Amino acid sequence: MARVRRLPVDPIAEAKRQWLAHGWADAAPGMTLVTSVMRAQQLILARVEAALKPFGLTFARYEMLTLLSFTREGRMPMASATARLQVHPTSVTNTVDRLEASGLVRREQHPSDGRATLVAVTPEGRDIAARATAALNTEVFERPGLNRQDTDDLVALIARLRRDAGDFDDPRPQPEPL
């Protein structure tokens, strides 16, 4: 991936300066947060896409294959995949369509619910998921761009934002192991 020339000034800091100069002081921190997170997402996604390109996968397709690979039987109802991936059902349908066309998943009739469809990973899909995970681990996840403490702190902050937005509930305390 070609490296873009560094800018002489942080454009987000400049945007914040402009927000303040225009009298939007109450909104300036939030604008800076949103813009910073969106730019960070672009930077991280570019690294992820570069790691997945040799496998012909997008991140959405990779997530589906990996989700299925983590299940005991390599299959789950499409509605469950929608919930776990936190995307619209149409996105799951499109992702499954593309993976199915590539021979990496297949649709199956649900054994007890005639209205539901299962999506199942094929052996080829499992293999690509494993190889793509190894590439992502090496090229992105092991070196995300922040040190361990900063990574942990940022994940905790974002988790709090997600929880407060209604993304999930805190789990009930688990019993101590015997």
Task: Outline the structure in words.
Helix 1 (11-21) packs antiparallel against helix 2 (28-52) and helix 3 crosses helix 6. The protein folds into 2 domains: 10-54; 56-144, Orthogonal Bundle (Arc Repressor Mutant, subunit A), CATH 1.10.10. The longest helix has 25 residues, at 28-52. It has a 3-stranded antiparallel β-sheet. 59% of the residues lie in helices and 7% in strands. By secondary structure, it is mostly helical. 13% of the residues are buried. It has 7 helices and 3 strands, in the order H-H-H-E-H-H-E-E-H-H.
SSE layout:
Blueprint lengths: L10 H11 L6 H25 L6 H12 L4 E3 H8 L3 H13 L3 E5 L7 E5 L1 H19 L6 H17 L14
Antiparallel strand pairs: 1-3, 2-3
Helix pairs in contact: 1-2, 2-6, 3-5, 3-6, 4-5
State the gist of this model:
The protein is mainly alpha-helical and 178 residues long. The protein has seven helices and three strands.
